Every structure is written in C-alpha cells, then in structure tokens.
C-alpha cells in the first residue's frame, strides 16, 4: 500500500493504458486503443465495488491481467474514496487475496459486485494512514531532503505562455519583443510566484503522549495524534484498531478515552473524522483538490523510479517556492514511516538483486513483472546508496577500520558497503595511484551496467553506485556474501582472475561458461596470462576481471573496469612508468593514470569495419567462382545468434549494397580483442609470442581506427551540418561517447576544429569550454576534498570569483569565519590564498595534463560566463541563487546584478542587497552606491546547496526496447497499423516497467510523438510531446538539451494542430533556454528561427515573419557562407516574405540572389534554379505594375496563403543525428521539387489585391533544404 497518493510508480504506470481508471480525479485517457500490451478487449470490463459509506457503490474498469493490488490502488486514488486505505475486498462473501492476478479470482466476470470491507488497523497501517492523509490534505509542509536538492524535479511546462497571454493584442505575438542578440536571461529558469494552496488544517502531528503505554497497547491503542483545526481548536485523537476518535487528553492531562456526547466524534478514517471536527475542512479540502487538479498530474507526482533533476539556479530562500514552514510532524516522519524500531528500512540489497535476477522470464508477463521489479529495486538502491554516501562524505558514519588512513577507511550503512574512490591500499600504485583508482571505480559502474544489460543466467553482479560529493568520490556496493570471509591457508579471496595484484591467477573452471558468454557479447578474446612463476592460465576475460563464489553459492563478477583493451597510442605517447627514486615524469609523458582504455562503442565500430572487410572478401571470392563457370547461388545468412545480431546491427551503406547484390554466410566471421595486451604480460612459448604479437597488432589497428577514421568523420559530419550540433558539454560528451571517442580526446577535437569554418569554430569553442570546466572541476575537488562541509560554500564562491569574477574584482577575498576555523584544525584552508592568476594557471595545467591541449592566452569567450557557470554548477552539483550575476564592471554599472555582492564581515552571513526588489518587475534597479566593502560576483550565501552527482548501473528494459524497435521496423516497411499497435504497446511496456517519470520514458515519448505525427495521428503525437517535455524537465533538467529539443518538437505539433500562438510560446521558451545553455548563435537554431517565421506567416503576421526569416538568413550566411544552397533556400523564403509585406523591390533583389546561387552551384537545368527563375520573372513583372495597383493594395484583405514547399516546417535534429533519423519514420515527401506554379500566381494575386479562386491543397512539408537540394542535384 502506498504511503502517498502522489506516487507515479503505482496506478498510472501499473495499468495497461487501455483500462480506464480514475486516478487523482483525472480520467486516464484510453491511450492504446484495443488490444494493447497486456489487456485485450475481451478481458477488460467493468465491475462495481460496494462501499460501507456514501456513495455506497463505485464502478471501476479493470483488466484481468492486472494484480488485485492495482485495483486497490485505483480505489485508494479515486477522490470520492480517498478515506479508504485499510480494507480488503470480497466477492460472494469470500475474501480476495491481495497478491494474486485478477484473472485468478474465482467468479470475477463483467458486472461482478465486489464488497469493500474495512479492516482493523495494525500499528503500521495506522502510521501509513496518517502519512497518506497528511499528503492528501496538503498538511505535509515543505521537506528538506538530504539527497534531493532545492526544487528537485521541477517543471516549468504549465507556466509557459501564461505570462504573455494577458499582454498580447491581435498584432502582438509571443515573439514580438524577442531580442536576437541579448545573452541568456536567468529568469527563464525561475518558476513564477505561486499562489498559496488553500489551508485545510493548521497541523496534524503525533501527540507528545505517544506511544501508548503497555496497559493501553494491550487494549488496542496504536497512536496518539494532536490536531489543530483552521478554527484554532486543538483536539487529541486516539488511533486504535477500530479507527480514530477524539479523546479527553489535554496538554497537561493524559486521558485517551472517548469524549462524551455531544463532543464525541469517531470514524474508521482520519479523513472522515477531520470533516466532523472542523466545519471549514470539507470546503477547503475541495478547494485544495480543485487547485491541484488544475495542474498536470505529471508535474507534481513524486518520482519513485528515478532521482529527480536538481536545477542549478533556484529561487532565493525568501521566495514563495522555498519558504520554510513550522511543521512538527516533519521531524516525526521517519517514525511514522518505519516505526519505533526502524527495522523496516533495513533491506538485504544483495539478496533482493540476485533473487530478482533468478525470477522466471519465459512468458511475456513474467518478463514484464521481472523487469518492473528490477527497475524499482535499482531505483530504491540508488536512492539509499546515494544518501549513505553523503553521510560518509560528511563524516557522519563511523568507519569499520578507524585506525587506517582516511582514504583506506571502509563503512557499512543500511546494508551497503562504502569505500573511497582513492588508492588507499596501493592497488593502483603502478597505474597512477589515486587518479587511477578514481577512474577505475567510474569504469566499474559502466562495466556492471554492461553485464546487467546482457542478463547472463547464473552470472551475478553486486549493486554498484558511485557518488561525487563535496570533492570526494565514494563507491557504494551491495555486500556480496563471503567477500569479508577470512580464508584458510592456500585459499584465495578470488576464484577467477588475478589475486593480490597479478602475482597469483585463479581459474576456477565453473566460471568458464559464464565468462565465455560475457566475453562473446563484449568482444573479449580468450587468451593466456602468466602469474609470477610464469605459469600459464587460459582466461575468458581480462586478468583484472574477478570471479567470486559467494557463500550463497552464486557466482559473482567483480572489478569490471577493464572490459576493453588499453588505448596503446595514447599511453605510449603520454604516459611513463613512475620512477623508483620519485623523480618527476617528463612533461610530455605525465598523463595522470594508465587506465586509458578504449570505449565499447569503438570496439563495436571497429568490429563493423572488420565485418565489412570480411563481406567484401567473401563477395570477391564468389565473383571469382562465378567467373570460373560456377553458379553463384545466394547463400542465406546462417550463423549463430551472435552473427545474426552482427548482421542486424550492421547499418553501413556498404553492407546494405553488398546484401542487395548477394548474401554472404557470416558464420565464419570472428572478431574479438585481447584486453591484456600492453599490460605487462610476458608470453613464454614461441607460439604464444606469435599469437600475442597478432593480438597487439589488432589492438593497435583499433586505436588507429579511432584516430584516422572515427574522429575525422565526426568532425566532417558536424562541419557539413549533416547531424544535430551539440549544445553544451553534456551533449558534446554524449555525442563523443556514442561514437566511441573518449573525453581525453577533447584537445584533439579542438585542434581539428581550429579552422575558418564557423560551425567548426563553434565546436572548438564548446570543446575548450568543456576542457576548462572539467579542469576546474578536478582542481575544485582537490580543494574541497580536505575541507569540512561548513566551508564548502565559501571555498566554491572564492574559486568561482577567481575564475569568472576576476573582471569585476581582480583581487577577490575568501569569506572566512575564524571562530569556525579554529574548530577544524585538520582542514586545509589553502583555498583562501588563491588568486585569479593562480586558479587560471592551475586550470590551464589540468587541461594540458588531461587533454594535451594548450589553452594559450585565448581563454573562454568573454560573453560565455553564464554558460561556463552552468557547466561548472552541473559538474560540481551546485545550486546557486537565481539572479543576474555581474561578471564585469560594465554589468554592474548597467544595473545587472544590481545588488553587486558585497562581503560584510558578519560571521560569514553576508547578505546581498535588495533581493526583494529583484523579484518584482519594478523599474530598473540602480547600481549599488559605492561602499567600503569589497564588491564580488559570488558570495558564500549565493551557493544555497550542493547535491551529489550519482553514477549508477541500472539496466535497460530489453522487452520495451524490442517492442519499440519492432514498431519502428513495421512503420519503415509501410505496415502502418501494425507499427502503430507495436509502438503503443512499447509505450505501455515502458510505463509499466520504468514508471512514468523516468528518463527512458521521456525518450520514448519523444520518439513516439515523432513517429505518430508522421503516421498522421496528430492528437496522440501532441499529447505525447507534452508528456515528453514534462518528464524531461523533471528527470533530466529544465534546461537539459533534450528538454530544449522536446519544446521545439512540441511547438511543431501545436502549430500543426492549429494552436499557432501556443506554438510560438514554446518556441520562445526553447530559444531563451538555448541562450542560457549555449548562447544566442547556435548553428542549429537557423532551423528554429525559420520554423518560427513560417508559424508567424501562417498566423498572417507578415511583418514579424519577415524579421524572423531575415534573422534566419543572417545566421545562415555567417555559418554556411553566402554562397551555400541553404542560404539560397532561405533567400528564396525571405523574398516571399518581402513580397507579402509589399516590398517588391526587396523581394526581387533577394530572389535574384537566390537564383544566382542556385544557378552557380546546381546549374541552369536544376529544378530549384528553374523555380527561382520563374518566381523572379513574376516578381519583377509585379514590381513594375505595383505602382498602378496602389489603391487595390490598400483595400487588399489578408488571406491564408500556401507558399511553395520551402515554407514548410522542419523538425529539429537531435544531437548527433540527422533530421530524418530524428523523425525516424519520415513519409516519402512527394512533389517537393516540383515548381509550384499556382502558389506564385496566388501570391501575385494577393499582392495585387485579387481573391484567389481556389485555395491550394496543403503540401507535404519539405525536408531540410540543404539535403533536399542535394537530392535535386
């Protein structure tokens, strides 16, 4: 039973979408049509539930494939039935078991009548009921959650467009006052002030008389509560097994027996009792529910299957969003949740993980249940592990080995084992020490995730989470049974792989079949290794990958940080072994660690290359055979499961072409890399030496493939604008990782991008920004690591002042509290001595060390302070006060950050000037008058919170992914109805398995909205696009790049369904976000500006539309050059827009420029050239006759007008994908290259004031003009 009704993992998720349920008063729409997912039409029906109180009966639609628990949840969450939480259901007088499927209930059929019977409470049920009622009536107050930061999981979706709606006139649109050149405004990320919710009751808390004494406990007393109503009356309530009643106790006297009539009140539910004792309760509760239901439920449901996104800019502590209210029960919540003993919260994580892995997965329903449980379990574990890691970082948990050095200390809390991501015991002494250990634990998480995704039967992993917090890296692992067991002499701690360094190698044969499957999937070659006595051992995986047989008999894979070979090119060029006499390393070979491995994506990419070569060779052999007179028969691909996977994964054009010519048997193809080459192994026999040399050559070839093929190809694609351009460090990192490029190659990327091309310049700037922020992160962590929590904010503020605020104040002063400092003699306060010069020098050194790039004097662009601040905040987990920070002296004189922060010597509690004024849109604030105090950009008080950065290993749902892929394939093969069913089934599976509020679900909403839109199901596409925005905002961040793309997508769909103004509000919000994330001139924003212009044109706002077309053209000329086809296409559109505002001369000039470019680049015979020529002739004629028609022009009415194919909207390409890949199922775009003669004539008729005789049909939208014209060529 849920403690809270706002739990997104329950009702909405658990039910197949075809079953209508009333949840929180909202009808959950019938999303899937008939027969989706698990519920088919024949087993979805209505039943009636008889109730003990008014309304006495309630109808519910159920699906027999659901659990009885799901039906209970639907009852609990129906507004009229909120009072019920402790009950059971009966059918024909027989109690129904709560833990079975509805299909297993004997006699359950359509129109059956179930009876709801109220149960006696237990102490746990009573506590849960109190928590639930507090949540329902809005009496829970604000919470200060250690893990979730300020306004975690916030959404701005419901507020977009609401501010403008009041101000707009018919001529004005949401884009009317948009400034193309201004920088990002941080107020975009500020939620509007909220009106306070109606107060239903003053307070509900546990009474000071709680818990019941022994003699009353035996009489059925469970809890004592204290309630203050809105009328100011105070009541003491007894909770006993039969329900709740008002007792005779007072503050001074204990008497828990019922009051006498007429003051006697009793009820089975606390909610009913509140209505009886407070006259105003019913009306305020109804008003409270109405206010809650105005908002989309997705925006306030609690996230239960994912850690919510923490915004990096949050409102000041004195705003309506963050007011701290008095609430006695807040301190009592842990008691209400887990009881006096608190034993309910301790879980055996390892046993839960492994027993979930062992659940059956043959039937689809079994897989759904297993994957749903896995997703919830990982979410719970990640949450618990992150909370424990924060306590470890703050020093609030006692170590198990307090006598050891700090880095070597280990901890156990909540059945999770914690250690630091540092080399406390010298394991990585030769690999780079602490740096190597830090990298290894990060790679281990990704290794564990890879193994979890493979889901190999009988091979288990421990739950693993890495948390970066306050400069420390902490690893949390579920405790593998037997890992701490003391072994006898001759026994090893490890059963497979290296023991104690690499001196002893264990090779328990029972691990061979398990590691064989793992290695096959991850392309790891079976190979020999040698121990200290040169004894040869054949291993399936890397010598670093360990196998352990737990005392529970299960086989565990541990230390999964070396699943791929080392990047030998990088290591040979930049790493040298530490010298024994402690001499410093040479400057060009001082990379901090030797853990530079290749990415699994690169190994896959190289594998595909090898497969292509293999197919070419086989085809050549076949052709030769055919030439020799043999008939070349088509050989079906017949390989094992792996070869089929390879065949389906292969997406390259070459292979597709080859497959068309002939089919090749790829069962003979083998490809795997040896992860232990170049790692100190010494082959003994000649045969081994020869094999080892081949393995080394293969790994070198893979490393060369990265440098000679993968990196240059990515640079070329970004230069040509073929794929979506990254917006910030996060999207750049993700793009590199998807292509198999490690972050250490950022310097290489910056060097290759150092060309005249504007797109490459933008890439270079992004790469440099990312290197600086990462270098600053490493340096900040080194300072924060040895400080106690109270000094984190002053340290961060001073470091930020040195990096970003040195233009405002070249000599920033660190805020310090000498009284506090004296209490922490062991802390390192060296950060106070740092100056802007020393910080920049340190960051420069980090960039040179880690990325082999010399920043030189060209630091980051001066107008990118805000972007830099955002990147740093996201990497360090900072939550700063949302205000305009003054980075330069000019900004302070202009009144930006008007309360230019001044440091006052008041015990570390400096305050910034008039914050209240800032929040009101009053007249511009004047610059602060000069005072004797120091003006600085950041104060310690501006750093309101620091949140942990969590890396976790939860696997993806294979079942949901398979359904999504099947749907995509069907749509691509033009089986639209089947495709649509499969896509909606995939959506239901995603929601069931992950819960609605999860990043994976946001991704699938986004993908499906595009696919359904292309299948002409616009209403469903629009609904999913709205959900994609909300879920992205809450799980990824309100200014995450995926959120920006989701808003742009939503704007296109709103426009297509006729909501032009709403669409423009979303476009504006996306553009404002874009300015904060990247700046005002992102290369891909050309498409968005152009789309906005087309939307304005549809709204018949021709003057404004012309401005946006011109802005799009101006940016395109900067980025693509004045003579590119894209520029010609935009000139064509600008000419049309000028004609619509009657500027015929301008239209002719622009069309002539467009014609000239098309003619030069594509030739006179190209369709685009001819179309431009025809328009040019007509426009010239019209310009000549324009003077004669001035009177007709004056009386000309505005009419809807369909322009040529160029006026169509284009989807925004996702980062690293083409626009076609983004929409995934583009329809054939017929007729986009024809000359649209009618639209020229219509335009001219309009300009000359005549009515068009016939409205042209709406044409299929054109694709990206650049690719479209290339096809035409």
Write up this protein:
- The chain has 1273 residues and is an alpha+beta fold.
- Among the domains are: 76 residues, Phosphatidylinositol 3-kinase Catalytic Subunit, Chain A, domain 1 (Ubiquitin-like (UB roll), Roll); 195 residues, copper amine oxidase-like fold (2-Layer Sandwich); 133 residues, no CATH class; 134 residues, no CATH class; 237 residues, Serine Threonine Protein Phosphatase 5, Tetratricopeptide repeat (Alpha Horseshoe).
- Helix content is 42%, strand content 10%.
- It contains 41 helices and 29 strands.
- The strands form 9 sheets. The chain has a 5-stranded mixed beta sheet, covered by helices on one side. A 5-stranded antiparallel beta sheet has the order 8-9-10-11-12, covered by helices on one side.
- The chain is globular, with a radius of gyration of 33 Å.
- The N terminus and C terminus are likely disordered.
- InterPro entries: CLU-central (IPR033646), CLU_dom (IPR025697), CLU_N (IPR028275), CLU_prot (IPR027523), GSKIP_dom (IPR007967), GSKIP_dom_sf (IPR023231), TPR-like_helical_dom_sf (IPR011990).
- One of its GO terms (cellular component) is cytoplasm.
The helix fraction, in percent, is 40-55%
Q: Structural class of the helices, strands and pairings?
A: alpha+beta
Distance between the termini: 64 Å
What number is the mean pLDDT? 83
Total strand count, please? Answer: 29
CATH superfamily of the domain at 956-1192: Tetratricopeptide repeat domain
Spans where pLDDT lies below 50 across 5 or more residues: 1-42, 630-651, 904-932, 1190-1206, 1224-1238, 1250-1273
The main pleated sheet reads as: 5 strands, mixed
CATH topology of the domain at 956-1192: Serine Threonine Protein Phosphatase 5, Tetratricopeptide repeat
Radius of gyration: 33 Å
Q: Tell me what the CATH architecture of the domain at 956-1192 is.
A: Alpha Horseshoe
Our count of helices gives 41
What is the CATH class name of the domain at 956-1192? Mainly Alpha
> What fraction of residues sit in β-strands?
5-15%
Rough shape?
globular
Give, in spatial order, the strands making up the sheet with the most strands.
4-3-7-5-6
GO cellular component, one term: cytoplasm
Domain Clu: 322-571
Pfam family, one: GSKIP_dom
GO molecular function, one term: mRNA binding
